[in-house]
Amino acid sequence: MSVLTIIARLKAKPGHEADLERELSALLAPTRAEKGCIQYDMHRSHQDPGLFYFYENWESRELWNDHMKTPHITGFGAKQGDLAESWELFEGEKVG
Q1: How many domains does the chain have?
Q2: pLDDT tens for residues 36-72?
Q3: What is the CATH number of the domain that holds 11?
Q4: Nearest C-alpha neighbor of 7 from the set 51, 39, 53, 52
Q5: N or C: which end of the chain has fewer CB within 10 A?
């Protein structure tokens, strides 16, 4: 089975850039410790300090689905609407 790659893009609401960064940063350690997490990196744009990307690789979709049900992710989901004006999710696999 192919490794699942996730690229998540989150844009902070104006005035909530630091709050969103703090909440996103809190996801790093617990997610990296999860079964199936190969890579979980957060990036902030140089041009727009309120724009964040996650680059993730998971052993399988099933293990990523488990990740999406963890307390740290569901807890963030409850706050996301207050902090982020938009978010997008790419799900794919490496082909070359």
Answers
A1: 1
A2: 999 999 999 999 999 999 999 999 999 999 999 999 9
A3: 3.30.70.100
A4: 53
A5: C
